[in-house]
Amino acid sequence: MVPQKIQDIKVAVDAVIFGYFDKKDLQILLIKRSIDPFKGGWAIPGGLVLDHENLEEAVRRELQEESGIKPDFLEQLYTFGNVDRDPRNRVVSVAYLGLVNPSYHELFADSDAEDAQWFSVHKLPKLAFDHQNIIDIALKRLRTKIQYQPIGFNLLNEEFPFSDLENLYRTIIGQEIDRRNFRKKIMSYGLLNETKNVKKEGSGRPGKLFTFNQEKYKEWEEQGFYFEIK
Amino acid sequence: MVPQKIQDIKVAVDAVIFGYFDKKDLQILLIKRSIDPFKGGWAIPGGLVLDHENLEEAVRRELQEESGIKPDFLEQLYTFGNVDRDPRNRVVSVAYLGLVNPSYHELFADSDAEDAQWFSVHKLPKLAFDHQNIIDIALKRLRTKIQYQPIGFNLLNEEFPFSDLENLYRTIIGQEIDRRNFRKKIMSYGLLNETKNVKKEGSGRPGKLFTFNQEKYKEWEEQGFYFEIK
DNA sequence: TCAAAAGTGTTGACTTTACACCCATGG
DNA sequence: CCATGGGTGTAAAGTCAACACTTTTGA
Predict the structure, then answer these.
(1) Cβ–Cβ < 8 Å for B195, B159
(2) Which of A81, B30, B116, B226 would be B55's cystine partner, CB 3.0–4.6 Å?
(3) What is the C-alpha separation between B40 and B126, in angstroms, rounded?
């Protein structure tokens, strides 16, 4: 196929992990680099793939090592392979997009990173390598994807008031939505199970709590829906 | 980030190239391997990335070398990185999806391949490596994508009768479509420019020839449309 | 004049949008 | 009783689906 000249390219994985805290912005997980290049700078988690592990295993391991996070949803995003991405070697990096409910995960920085933190997508620090570009692409994908697959639920608590879902969509899409029409649409998909519980905290009338229906989720995940928000 | 143990993984690119001949099935470009493993077997074009070239450059070079094809449309599909993909080394392969109008491209097998041929997606030979899997994923992507982006035009001649577009959709989606509704919908997007020419060959009433509107294409490519075919 | 493919409209069903007031609770 | 957020319906506009006959050409 190709002359067997020795190839000098490294393979890495990186992860853009989104988390959502109610009433706040959409957040992204960043780690502070403990080694050069960009030592002390912020970057998305990631690292070189080990010889014996599959790509997704590699991302999960790196996430674990660098931040303690185990994402609920994780899918391949895009592979970045330009020759000048890394000042040391040529590195081809397979980027993943992950979703996490941060209230179920404690963040800690392990050996491989000096620190790990959530940052609002609107207030990101300057990032190492081409990571800002990777995040931009991830955000675009998330915004598109949430409109035809029910992945948003991965960011919410197991039981959540309807308004959480509403705010999540508002936040991710960055656009006002009509509460009545939104509720009708979501309800029509049959994705939500009503529980008998109600939200306690906060002022105002307590909202019913919902869980989401895993079977319906799978159905809609496969066939997709069309959910344009006006 | 990660201990600098020497990594032993190779980086390759592969391409699933679709071509469409009027009145025929959708076709895929395959090459006959001239080296082991799978020597003499059929595979999708591809090969190792050179140190100094970007990923997309690598695919284009390999396609050129192995078949003489320069795809009109080419985008990254997915990266396949399981540990056991290749019996020799570990190879991570970045797969691309390409579209070509075969009547504008002569196929030839160059030094790197014994032969290069179009195969109907419905009559593929047994394929090397995990290439059948890659093709399955590419087909799925093509079928989905053609329903929200106007990429189909890349498969047609520069001037084409409306029925070509119709048949193309029928073929790719593998489903009957309503001619009247289809035409209305496509026309409403403003993607087509009517020419003064008509199709000559074939029996029956000659059809007007159309070209497609590059500017509108770009618009719709970015914003996407929603085109479910019933 | 026949066969083959091109071209073309309308109606009813359904879906989407726009829009505002009352309700339940806690302080 | 006030503030806060939760919960709900309807009508008009727009879009989609279903459906069949006429036109143009070449043989």
Answers:
(1) yes
(2) A81
(3) 11
What is the full DSSP assignment across B25-77? -EEEEEEEE-SSSSTTSEE-SEEEPPTTS-HHHHHHHHHHHHH----SEEEEE
The answer to whether the CB atoms of A112 and B54 lie below 8 A apart is: no
CA A109 to chain CA mean position, Å:
18
Answer whether the bond into residue B37 is a cis peptide, omega within 30°. Answer: yes
Residue B154 CB coordination number (10 Å): 18
Between the CA of B215 and the C1' of C6, what is the distance in angstroms? 27
Residues 6+ apart with CB under 8 A from A77: A16, A95, A96, A97, A134, A137, A138, A141
| Residues whose C-beta lies under 7 Å from strand D | A 161-163, 179-181, 183-184, 198-199, 202-208; B 178-181, 185, 203-206, 226, 228, 230
Half-sphere exposure of A31 (CA within 13 A, CB side): 28
Residue B83 — very low, low, confident or very high, per pLDDT cuts 50/70/90? very high
Q: Helices marked H in chain A — which ranges?
A: 55-67, 131-145, 162-173, 179-188, 214-223
Task: Evaluate if residue B9 carries a pLDDT over 70.
Answer: yes
Segment A178-188 shows an average pLDDT of 96
What chain A holds in terms of domains, given with CATH numbers, is: 10-146 (3.90.79.10), 157-223 (1.10.10.10)
Q: What Cα–Cα distance (Å) separates residue B124 from each residue in A131, B67, B119, B220?
A: 40, 18, 6, 33
What whole-number distance in Å separates Cα of residue B60 and Cα of residue B46? 9
Q: Which two tokens stand for residue B114?
A: 């014994």
Chain B residues in contact with chain A using a Cβ-Cβ cutoff of 8 Å: 1-2, 7-11, 33, 35, 46-55, 62, 76, 78-79, 81-83, 90, 92, 94, 112, 226, 228
φ, ψ dihedrals at B168, nearest 5°: -60, -50
pLDDT tens digit sequence for A185-197: 999 999 999 999 8
Asked whether the beta carbons of B77 and B96 are under 8 A apart, the reply is yes
Q: Where are the alpha helices (DSSP H) in A39-178?
A: 55-67, 131-145, 162-173
Structure tokens at A83: 């020759």
Provide, as residue numbers in chain B, all residues whose Cβ is less than 8 Å from the Cβ of A227.
none
B216-227: pLDDT as tens digits:
999 888 888 888
